[in-house]
Amino acid sequence: MKRLIQIILSIVLAVGLVACGGRYSVPGNVLKKAIAISVDQTQQDISQQLKLSAAPKVNVDRVKITDQTPLKIEGLDGYRVKGEYDFTLKLPKRQDKLADNTFDLYLQHQTVDKKQIWKLAEQDGEAWKLKAIE
Q1: Number of C-beta neighbours around residue 24 at 10 A
Q2: Is 4 a residue whose pLDDT tops 50?
Q3: What's the pLDDT tens digit per position in 16-45?
Q4: Pair 71, 79: CB distance under 8 Å
Q5: Which of 9, 85, 92, 127 has the most CB atoms around its CB within 10 Å?
Q6: Is residue 81 within 8 Å of 68, Cβ to Cβ?
Q7: DSSP labels for 10-39?
Q8: pLDDT tens digits, residue range 44-89?
Q9: Rounded to whole angstroms, how far apart are CA atoms 40 and 89?
Q10: Is the residue at 109 inside a domain?
């Protein structure tokens, strides 16, 4: 009887882990880097338009995924990921924390020689512009 209970608990635990792991497939560190790249690009564009010497550094603090949809990007697996994040702008003389910002990103995923490669994807008309996430 004790063995039967252990087997049932093992099965329930295994099913629970698979169910939890399958909901969001983009690793958190990849998503934080993708958001940082996106915010950093926006900051650089603004700095260029305002003729500032340097764009502030960006540090993504909290990420909350609200929706993730699988799709194909140039024939490879990808995801459209939506959610919220907080980030800190590191300025020369101070830091500003900005909370509850929304994001809507496209990420492409592939495996090459057992290595996971992620790219930030942006639609440019009918084509995709891809940027590697380091």
Answers
A1: 15
A2: no
A3: 333 334 455 899 999 999 998 998 888 777
A4: yes
A5: 85
A6: yes
A7: HHHHHHHHHHHHHH--S-HHHHHHHHHHHH
A8: 778 778 777 776 778 898 999 999 999 999 999 999 999 999 989 8
A9: 10
A10: yes
Residues 101, 28: contact at Cβ < 8 Å?
no
pTM of the model: 0.73
- Those residues with Cβ within 8 angstroms of residue 129's Cβ, 6 or more apart along the chain or in another chain: 121, 122, 123
**CB-neighbour burial class of residue 121 (10 A; exposed 0-12, middle 13-18, buried 19+):** buried
Return the pLDDT at 84. 96
Question: Is 73 within a domain?
Answer: yes
| 86 within domain boundaries | yes
In this structure, what are the phi and psi dihedrals at residue 37, rounded to the nearest 5 degrees?
Answer: -60, -45
Instruction: State which residues form the domain around 60.
Output: 26-132
Separation of alpha carbons 78 and 13, rounded Å: 29
| CA within 13 Å, CB half, 118 | 20
Give me the number of domains the chain comprises.
1
CB 66 within 8 A of CB 82: yes
Tokens of 108: 């492409």
